[in-house]
Amino acid sequence: MLSRVAERTYWAARYLERIENTVRLISVYDKLMSDLPTSVGIGWYNLITINSAEEAFDERYKVQDERNVIKFLLSEGNNPCSVVSNLKFARENLRTTRDVVPAQSWVMINELNMFVIENLQQGINRSQRFHFLNGIIKSCQQIQGLLMGTMPRDAVWSFMGLGRNIERADMTTRLLDAGVRAQLQVMDDAEAINSQQIIWGQVLRSLDADQSYRRTVRASVKSRLVARYIIEDTAFPRSITYCLAAVKGSLENLPHHKPVVSTVKKIQQARLSEIDYSDLGVPMKDFLNDMQLDIAEIHSSISKNWFTNQQG
Which pTM value belongs to this model? Predict the structure, then answer.
């Protein structure tokens, strides 16, 4: 298999996953803003910080308000992490690998692109945002379902699995970070009596994890239990532990995989054994930041092992 084909299918999967998860991140904050007391000072700029995009945002916008943050994350062409930019990248990678991916995936990504372009204003305006964001999530899941149901389990599938689960693990850390940051901002608010339950309930819903959490944990929504579930559960497909195991499984189906598998094992054994759930403040933020660096290390190892160029 040519390295450029491997790289493009890997990145096609990453960009598709990133589109969906960026929308999930916006959605969880949108709902938190509606559900939490107005006295709670949660700012939209947190989404920029969570995405490590402060410099790019500050170069483009002077005001850190809701409208500018949403425009930056949805429609800003100069932001490589925006939904519009990632759609462009995903389409290009699928276009150039149409001989190895289902033909219908090219049709569906173009339909998603048209939906986003024609309805961007709905996403920017709060009154219609829910419909717009849900439409994107639904389309991404339809494309993922097509790929899962029709692709042979060969090297192309393995590289797409790597891209999907690396991106998913990374964004799960960012969704957790959103919860931690929100929790830190409501701790001293006397009016926010039930705020922690609201925050962590929305984090679960942003991952479509609320039902599986109740079935597995069999407890009410509590911050440390939610964090442990999203990080450690071995059966939930968006948990960090599950994603890393899936990455390892995809790697083992590829030739010359031992150096990269060694990197994944090191992270599984070291990082995931040091978590302190008693304090979901700064220590958890530090853990999530370290986990993001670990995921970047896995990506770097994959790139060095199989790819010729660097996307991102």
Answer: 0.93
